[in-house]
Design goal:
The complex is a heterodimer of chains A (139) and B (135). Chain A is mainly α. Chain A is built from six helices and no strands. Chain A has one domain. The longest helix of chain A is centred in the C-terminal third of the chain and has 24 residues. The radius of gyration of chain A is 17 Å and the shape is globular. By secondary structure, chain B is mostly helical. Chain B contains six helices and no strands. Classes of the chains: A mainly alpha (139), B mainly alpha (135).
């Protein structure tokens, strides 16, 4: 099956969100988890534990499956800085990212999350369009 | 106990991201390249994940409380306001520019390359900037 790995990977991501909600009553919104892990460090043991797991997962997957780690993005370094600033600012302002609004919000049938997801999909698609088909690889 | 559950959930999430190719910025940007050489993988990732949450959340949220703590912590905002739209729009631009959203960026720290590390630092700076200007 050509897309079985993305599908199974997605199912694992969904199961992770279900485990979080069922056991500790939390939405798996990674932008919020990262920010609160730092801003509310005193009450964030579960958040730090989740983040440690998030980094451990790929280590385990690549070493057990033998699949090589992906090639890092070849864009110039400053694009990582600009993109990171946008992602950080935008996810705090918009109260979530692909996991909180996408995976969890859509799972809760939240209209707010549906609108957010459609919005970041649309601007993401528009940005890649400009990057690849208007500027044609200028960066 | 909550931390152990969160650790396991984090491992599941990180494994799912690596398995599905979401820690590969080329695949993510390929998915967003709707008018070019489209890479459909992310549709299957999102589809698989939302299929699971949409079914299971219904049953979980029928409970009075989660298994290990006294109550659910759910978002209470309902408004479709400029912050939501503007924030999501800015996030999407950053996502398209580099191919990382927050989860995959943190998960990709596992590869010990400088790219995800620099991205995560900039992302934290962006989050901090938002917190400072919000007051």
């Amino acid at each position: 099956m050509p897309y079985s790995l993305p599908l199974f990977g997605g199912i694992l991501i969904g199961l992770s969100a279900v485990v979080m909600l069922l056991f500790i009553g939390r939405i798996t919104g990674i932008s919020s988890i990262i920010w609160s892990a730092i801003a509310e460090a005193g009450t964030s043991a579960w958040r730090w534990a989740f983040l440690v797991g998030l980094v451990t997962g790929p280590l385990a997957f690549h070493s057990l499956s033998g699949q090589p780690a992906p090639t890092p993005n070849a864009s110039p370094w400053w694009l990582a800085v600009v993109a990171g600033l946008f992602v950080g600012y935008g996810t705090r302002l918009g109260s979530g990212c692909t996991s909180g609004h996408g995976v969890c919000g859509l799972g809760r049938l939240s209209l707010r999350s549906l609108i957010a997801t459609l919005t970041f999909m649309a601007t993401g698609i528009a940005t890649v369009y400009v990057l690849r088909h208007v500027m044609e690889g200028a960066v | 106990m909550s931390a152990i559950v969160a650790l396991i959930a984090g491992i599941l999430f990180g494994t799912g991201l690596a398995m599905s190719g979401m820690t590969d910025t080329a695949k993510v940007q390929g998915f967003l390249d709707l008018f070019g050489a489209w890479v459909p993988d992310l549709a299957f990732v999102m589809g698989g994940a939302v299929l699971v949450t949409a079914i299971a959340f219904r049953f979980v949220l029928k409970r009075q409380a989660p298994l290990l703590v006294e109550r659910f912590h759910l978002p209470t905002a309902r408004d479709i306001d400029p912050s939501l739209l503007g924030g999501a729009a800015l996030f999407g631009i950053g996502w398209g520019l580099y191919g990382y959203c927050p989860g995959p960026a943190v998960a990709a720290l596992a590869y010990l390359d400088w790219q995800p590390a620099l991205f995560v630092l900039a992302m934290l700076a962006g989050m901090g900037f938002r917190q400072l200007t919000a007051r």
